[in-house]
Amino acid sequence: MASYIGSATPRVDGRAKVTGEAKYAGEFNVPGLVHGYVVESTIPKGRIVRIDPSGALEVDGVIDVLTHRNRPQMADKDDAYKDEVATEKGSPYRPLYDDIVLFSGQPLALVLAEDWETARVAASLVKVEYQKAPHVTDLHTERANAFAIDKPEKPRGDAEKAFASAAVRHEAEYFIPTEHHNPMELFASTAIWDDGQLTVYDKTQGVQNVQQYLCGVFKMKPDAVRVMSPYMGGGFGSGLRPQYQVVLAVLAARALKRPVRVMLSRAQMYALGHRPATIERLALGAKSDGTLDAMTHEAIAVTSQFEEFARNDTGWGNLLYRSPNAKFEHKLVKLDVPTSCDMRAPGAATGVYALECAMDELAVALKTDPVQLRLQCYSDRDQGADIPYTSKQLRECYREGAAAFGWDKRKAEPRSMREGSDLVGWGMASGVWEALQMATTVRIVLTANGHAEVATAASDIGTGTYTIMAQVAADMLGLPIDNINVKLGDSTLPQCPLEGGSWIASSVCNAIANTARAVRGDLLKLAIGMKDSPLAGAGVDDVALIDGKIVSRRDATRAVSIASAMQSGTADRITREEANKVAEDKSHARNVHSAIFAEVKVDEQLGVIRVTRVVNAVAAGRILNPKTAHSQVMGGVVWGIGMALHEETLFDHRFGRVMNANIAEYHVPVNADVHDIKVIFVDEPDEMVNPLGIKGLGEIGIVGVAAAIANAVYHATGKRVRDLPITLDKVIQFN
Amino acid sequence: MTPFQYSRANDVADAIKQIATDPSAKFIAGGTNLIDLIKYDVEGPSRLIDISHLPLRSVEPTSAGGVLIGAMVPNTDLAYHPLIEGRYPLLSRAILSGASQQLRNMASTGGNLLQRTRCFYYYDTATPCNKREPGSGCSAIDGVNRINAILGTSEACIATHPSDMCVALAALEATVHVTGPAGARIIAFADFHRLPGNTPQRDTNLEPDEIITAIELPPKGFSANYSYLKIRDRLSYAFALVSVAAALELDGDTIKEARLALGGVAHKPWRSTAAEAALLGQRTDATAFAKAADWLLHGAKGYGHNNFKIGLARRAIMRTLDQAARGTPQSNSDKKIR
Ligand SMILES: Cc1cc2nc3c(=O)[nH]c(=O)nc-3n(C[C@H](O)[C@H](O)[C@H](O)COP(=O)(O)OP(=O)(O)OC[C@H]3O[C@@H](n4cnc5c(N)ncnc54)[C@H](O)[C@@H]3O)c2cc1C
Ligand code: SF4
Asked: Looking at beta carbons, which residues of chain A come within 8 Å of B126?
């Protein structure tokens, strides 16, 4: 039997998704379901003086209006609201807790009605009177109030001095605006209250995180709360923390003793977390031989007034480029907005964008080819921790990516390549992310008929977790993939971390391997117990499960079928639950890498930019499923196109409000913006990173893409645009 | 949102009768704009009178040599109608550059004329807006106004009319057939939409109790030398920052007649008789095009974020005229500017 691991296996949940059989959080219907609609604040800061729900209560079909004044009890300590991803410092937001307004779009009331339309109509009749307070939402005007976060990256040498005396210098600021995730599926929760037992269908990337959070907020026993999220219509980080609608749904279900669904509108989702607007300053100093001598990376990012959210923006240079002198600084600015949150490659999407644009500018200053510069500065060690990598095939990424792109035909001079009325530009960048593994437990139930259920509390946020788990389990158990049933997204299943950070594939698959080994051990015991067993004397690692049989690795003719082994032991099922082994070993750095090459065509007169080609060469260890992996990276590239050219949450700072809170005006790339994308997986065997050699590739697809495009735009036009998105009016001075 | 009644109109007379009895009622055709506005609480009609079943769905040649388009003809059907593709390709291209396939399938010819502005503040009831709430102020003038107007603006409002189709209809000098309690009348396209002035709440000169029944195209379609160029922030499914409809009648390389209209820059499709006159008798070259652009953009004024539109419009006008003159109209399917 051919191996499923490494083969382009179609999604096992594909049929359920296209037929509508796969249900999402807002689709679980129960008799007597009550619908909640949120009334949000229209001001960013102040107090609620009065909420008048009378207009809403008069509407036929309205059951109640919940506000901070009449809601059921909730915990009153910060700790109760701290979910797994909560920031270390600060007080997590408490929905409907008190009269204080912390951001525009904050939920102030929940209108509950027999149907959703009635709730929505009634919500518009709730009157809120505010006492406004002065607010700030603009990072640029508030940057003077930035404060440093506690644990900055360690400096090396004296970066300032080295920069001052460097032969060639580049120094600049880059800017990334606020961006929102905009997953297709709206945030929704359906809470079912049944005599003290609570079942919640929630849109989340971590059912157990939400379960623990709800236990804290509502002071409930773990046994009494079950959270489920079998499918998710995109998360991208927006579903890592419990979102406020789940609290509202549970509050209402408790108050009414009825099942309640709260679904947010698209506009309301712009008051959830977001990628923080960030200013990045890079100062790079090189010797005349083109090696780096000084690297300074500073970031100033937005957080809310009540929590300090920060991700690693500045440390990536340590992983990519050798520099004896380096300095890093990460600051935050508190604004009257919701707390920023993780969004696809948090920290790296922004930090590496700035770093890789700066490297391009340095290459120009040095009159060196951008790939050449990166090879000259290539680091075989994580300089921050001063350790080597378990594997790092980034050189190969540059080589294969450049070859596939045809980089050698590039003319160095900006504006030197043309096609009709278009200026043609070629740019490149590097990408880097972490290869993490988190403690995970997987349960396998193998039945005598040769079927297995494989279960853990992970969420499949659309990346293909169901599919890779089925592939790995099928291989490890020696069964056809159709005989594997994967169960996910239920807090009562074995422990699993949040789906994020690109760690799920490595975590769940290594846990499957361990659990499958335990199952194999049980089967072997049964087989050995058979009369004249051909496997007598074999140990668990001397045999493998292949084609429904327990087979000696040394002599394939010595085998016992799984069915007869189980029959002989009168076992109708074998149930095992094991965890992966998360390496404590800190002697090696674990990372994934990529090299991105982009071609843009820019109309010389009109400034219209098209990204006509992108090659993304990725080294991410073992690729479990080239098909879903390709989609994942391609999606990252498309998002990178959006980050480079389209995405921006537009604020009117006078009102402290988002002005383009809908997907007609918040632009993401559409088909016409996406041309030729080639994804290459560079061979990277790695037995050190974890037993299966899996590094994960959720995030890496987007990292560096915006930089490659920005660098290509410079190469095409000679114009360096350092604030995203690169719109036509930034490329051309029209007036 | 306000609850509303729903009724269907059986025929045009019934539609007029229904709207006359209920001044806060609204017609609904494709609903692609009105429904959004209701959801955003910008519109709150007491009744929706569904006119989408009215027998106004034909595209027919007129005895005068033009074409009469029923108000309920979906945008998609109109764009692909052989009479339009063949004789008025400018209109076809303009329609296909707008919205998305799904929206064009729903959107009606009449509704397209009456779609409201995309000004961000108009849709956000938490902010002042004279168009939504006369007298409350214009948030866009000193606000996020990248998408707003540069021509024909007023102190009260700097909104644009967002339609692509209307830019082509303006250039083609279509007329709008309407019927009301006082009978039928025909409105020249240039007189249909209004400038904001002191009454930005009124987009058009259509009376609230009137219904659009048809659009009439005059015989001249400029099918040899035309182009519709739309410049936007992504390559499809975005409203125009600036769009240009150009139609020329040539004698060799001399211009015998010219039509030029801009979208995305004003409260209505923007034309200038001086600009078109300046092209008459000229050779199809950059000098003539630049002069026309200057005339057309005469008096243009930026409000900060949208300053670039003036220069962009100038270059877009020149490019579109060039495309029209060369007979290489901008295509909608390859997303490349020609
Ligand atoms: C996301 C999005 C993107 C879009 N992009 C573009 C674009 O790029 N370019 C573009 O041109 N358009 C674009 N549109 C707008 C779209 O073209 C219009 O919404 C559509 O043409 C309106 O037609 P409708 O039939 O749906 O109108 P409706 O929404 O049904 O009606 C609009 C208004 O017209 C009135 N009305 C309708 N028909 C009549 C009639 N016969 N007589 C009197 N009154 C009438 C209604 O009462 C209502 O006030 C976009 C729309 C959306 C939602
Ligand atoms: S430009 Fe017009 S529509 Fe926009 S805010 Fe001002 S008045 Fe309202």
From this structure: 42-43, 104, 655, 657
> Does ligand 1 have an atom closer than 6 angstroms to the CB of B180?
no
CB contact (8 A) between residue B234 and residue A672:
yes
A438-579 matches A278-436+586-731 in CATH topology? yes
Query: So what's the pLDDT on residue A127?
Result: 98
Q: Cβ of A494: how many Cβ atoms within 10 Å?
A: 21
- pLDDT score of A1: 58
The whole-number pLDDT of residue A735 equals 84
Predicted local distance difference test score (pLDDT) of residue B336: 77
Percent of chain A with pLDDT over 90: 97
- Catalytic residue list of A: 699
**CATH code at A278-436+586-731:** 3.30.365.10
**Which of A605, A660, A667 is closest, CB to CB, to B234?**
A667
State whether residue A291 sits within 8 Å of chain B by CB. Answer: no
The third-level CATH classification (topology) of the domain covering B5-52 is: 3.30.43
| Mean pLDDT value across residues A299-326 | 97
Spatial contact of A389 and A615, defined as CB atoms under 8 Å apart: no
**CATH code of domain A18-134+183-265:** 3.90.1170.50
Which of the ligands is closest to the CA of residue B117?
2
- B159 C-alpha to ligand 2 centroid (Å): 5
Rounded average pLDDT over B295-316: 98
* Per-chain mean pLDDT for chain B: 97
Return the pLDDT at B99.
96
Segments of A264-416 assigned E as strands = 278-286, 292-304, 325-335, 381-382, 387-388
Q: What pLDDT score was predicted for residue A564? A: 94
ipTM score: 0.97
CATH classification of B226-326 is 3.30.390.50, yes or no?
Answer: yes
- Provide the residue ranges of all domains of chain A, joining segments of one domain with +: 18-134+183-265, 278-436+586-731, 438-579
Write the CB contacts of A646 (distance below 8 Å, at least 6 apart in sequence): A667, A668, A669, A673, A725, B233, B234
Ranges assigned E (strand) in chain B: 5-8, 25-28, 47-50, 59-61, 67-70, 175-180, 183-188, 211-217, 225-231, 242-251, 254-263
The confidence score (pLDDT) of residue B205 equals 98
CATH 3.30.365.10 fits domain A438-579: yes
Ligand 2 atom at minimal distance to the Cα of residue B143: 5
Long-range contacts formed by B20-26: CB under 8 A, 24+ apart: B20/B181, B20/B209, B22/B46, B22/B47, B23/B208, B23/B209, B25/B49
pLDDT by residue (tens digit) across A215-270? 999 999 999 999 999 999 999 999 999 999 999 999 999 999 999 999 999 999 99
pTM: 0.98
Instruction: Please tell me the number of Cα atoms within 13 Å of A226 on its side-chain side.
Output: 14
Q: Which of A115, A130, A655, A662 to mutate to test the interface with B (most CBs of B within 10 A)?
A: A655
Helix (H) or strand (E) holding A441: strand A441-447
Instruction: Please indicate whether, in this complex, the C-beta atoms of A124 and B237 are within 8 angstroms of each other.
Output: no
Interface contact B144-A652, CB threshold 8 A = yes
Ligand 2 contact, B187 CB (< 6 A): no
- A144 touches B: beta carbon within 8 Å: no
